[in-house]
Amino acid sequence: MGAEEIKKNVYWVGAVDWNIRDFHGYSTYKGTTYNAYLVKDEKVCLFDTVKASFKNEMLYHLGQLIDPEEVDYIVVNHVELDHSGSLADMIKLCKPEKVFCSPMGLKAIQTHFHPVDWPLEVVKSGDSISLGSKTVHFLETKMLHWPDSMFSYIPEDKLLISSDAFGQHLASTERFADELPDGAALLEAEKYYANILMIFSNNVQKLLATVGEMDLDIDMIAPDHGLIWRHPAIILEAYDRWSQHTAERKAVIVYDSMWHSTEKMAKNISAGLRSVGVHARVLSAKSNHRSDIIVEVMGAKAVIVGSPTLNNGILPTMADVLTYMKGLRPRKKIGAAFGSFGWSGESVKILNGFLADMQCEIIEPGVKVKNVPDKDALQECFALGVKVGKAINEAFDAEVDGAVVAAED
Ligand code: FEO
Question: What class, spelled out in words, does domain 248-390 have in CATH?
Answer without folding.
Answer: alpha beta
